[in-house]
Amino acid sequence: MTTTSTDASTVPDASEIPRRKPSRRGQYSSWLYLVPALAVFAVFMFFPLARSFVLSFQGNDILGRPAGFVGAEHYLKLLQDSEFHAVLLRTIAFVVLTVVPVIAISLMLSLLLHQRIRGIRFFRTAFASPFAFSVATASVIFAVMFNQATGVLNGILGTFGIGRVGWITDPHIALISIALTTVWMQMGYNLLVLSAGLGSVPDDIIEAARLDGAGGLRLQRSIIIPLLTPQIFFLLVTGTINSLQSFGQIHILTRGGPQGSTTTLVYSIYEQAFAYGNSNFGYASAQAIVLLIVVVVITALQFGLVERKVFYQ
Amino acid sequence: MIRRRTVMASMAGMAVTAPLVAGCSGGGGGSEAKAPDSGALDKADGETTVAFWHSMDGTNGDTLEKLVKAFNEKNSGKITIKPVYQGEYDDGITKYKAAVQSGSTPALVQIYDLGLQFMIDSGTVVPMQSFIDRDSYDVSDIQPNIAGYYTVADKLWSMPFNTSMPVLYYNKKLFEKAGLDPDKAPETLDEVGEAAKALSKKNDGPAEFGFNGAIYGWFVEQIIATTGELYCTPDNGRGKERASAFAFDNDAAVEFLTWWKKLVDDGIAGNTGRAPADAQDAFKSGTIGITLESTGALGGMKEAADEQDFELGVGFYPRIEKNEYGPVIGGASLYVVGEKHSDAEKEAAWKFVQFCNEPANQATWHTGTGYFPVSKKALDEPEDTKWRKDFPQFDVAIQQLDETELSTPTQGGTAGIMPQARKAVEEAWEGILQGDDPKEGLTKAVKGLQSALDQYNDSAG
Predict the structure, then answer these.
(1) Where are the membrane-spanning stretches (chain A) (predicted)?
(2) Tag placement on chain B: N or C end, fewer CB within 10 Å?
(3) Are B101 and A1 within 8 A, CB to CB?
(4) Domain limits, CATH 3.40.190.10, in chain B
(5) Domain made up of A75-309: CATH architecture
């Protein structure tokens, strides 16, 4: 991971470096090597993307067949639809509610688990274990715990004399509950990545910092965490995209309810295209294009604003 | 890292857009199909294979496979039915739509109750009625209330296959502890409310909650039917015209949801949300006094009751007033697909449908799955009488079905966008539990559906 990568095309005048100029034959063969990858990309990415784009300008009949071009109608509808605006805001809220806590908690845990204490290996494995759970398994387990009438969470609250919480039935709380489930699911992976990062922090730097009198929190804040920023940045970017695409836990826990309070962008696309007998592929495709734009913009922002603070060795 | 960015972005794009290109273009609907000449199978060379898409998994799927196997053995060398599980009901209909587009439909398909109007409008099915009329097939053995659901404009469009009804389940042990008569199920909403009050912990009763049921749009459809009101107009979509407006903001629905909300607000009823499984789990834990559920859940409920050591009581679905109409059936039915299938295939599919309807096979189906038998005679089969001795609770369900008087309201509503209507009811219901006025909430839902319904009706032509 380097910040500035230089390749041949960015060099002002390539002819000045004759050694780099590929031979005609080499050019052809390099394209040949790219064919398999390009073919896969074309079939599974570029074609569907182009197709979605076209679909987003078309209407659909009751069987879901494209039925004539409707211009930008779907996009105008999206602009005016207050429910869709709520979906967008909710999606962003969900990303913040998942990505920030996941990174914060797993960073703290990884620092704690990096201590040399007897039996720490057990805890390292235990905390990383959510990684091994499938979305479906984790969601079903959380559904049982969230059950308003018989769930263990309300049971525990009850022993403290606190009333029942509608974890996934109260529209004000449901999104937080889904976020909680997601945080738990993603923590294992985050912890593994950060632990690996911690393991590769060179001992000599730590040693030098210690000699300079840094210890404890100071050492962690000024030396270790800056050295972990590449991993943190990586988790931020992948975690955001992951979170934008969350589907399984929403589908199993709430189906986008109650009252649409957990319908994020991806779930809304699914509902329009496939759920409840719908086959509004045009409208769903328009939403998918919006999702693509959201992903690209957020990712670009992260690279533009955050990556500068990343410390690459 | 820079390269990674574009990969990530396009991967995100791929992940969200790839499923949306499920289908491209394909053949058109066309006019209503008719049953082929009855000799089509004899004329066919060799074996006729019929693909059969269904949504039955677990025990239900096993029982289905058993029926298919028996049929294939009986017709060995002539017909092979190839059942394919296509996921849940919603997945089934989605896949069917895609198959119509790509011209790869099965000749026989199981579609859920809510898909009726859509299947009619799809222009791809051969109405069951045209086979019945052609063969003068004796329909007197088919339970009329079950067939009623799949009848539009006096024509039976599909053969009922798996049928259930909602009933009231109660925990007899908790009834006894609360000083209630365990042998008498509450019959009206008021009676359920009273019993729930006595049962609930809030009022020093033995149950965590006196009542708890899923926020399930089906229940609202039921209560509307019991009072003789309509779910959609005109005529519940049962006449010559398609339903052009929803009417579920009527008095019955308002009273039902007002009643439900009060129980929740008073702390007598729980609220486990929309998922029927969550409400079932709560009742199965033995801490809920009364719940509403489908007859299809009976097997699981009985098992859980034995495990938790309580006796399971079953009663009629509660009415607003005593002696009102019965509720509506739910479930799924079988459609013979006309488009792009040979006459021999259609004929073979019809043969299988008739086979399923035979009393002995319906007894196998009924006892293996807990769904109602379509055939009335199935109940006299020894296999069936023996099974009902183990599940006396099921007799309540049979009685409820028999006592239902077939009418436009008890046929149930059907409209092009039924699945969306049910969801809209559920969302309104959630809003009502959060403090919305029941009448206003339901009216808002009715209005919210109008443009989608108009669009559907325009599109269906």
Answers:
(1) 30-50, 87-113, 125-146, 173-201, 284-306
(2) C
(3) no
(4) 46-163+329-407, 166-327+417-460
(5) Orthogonal Bundle (1.10)
